[in-house]
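Render this sequence as a predicted structure.
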Amino acid sequence: MSAGLARVEGKGDGSLAHWQRVHRESFARTPAPLGIEPTDELEIVCERFEVVFRSG
């Protein structure tokens, strides 16, 4: 994750440090039942969407 993508997400204070903190907590909870422990090498996928049409 880059600082720019963390800022674009628009949550918290927009910093990379905030993004890392809250997502590390989430990543620790979510895969735990599967026996997966997140590490700094964990690969994540980020998607960015753009509105291309608005009706009305």
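Summary. Residues 16-29 form the longest helix (14 residues). The chain has two helices and no strands.
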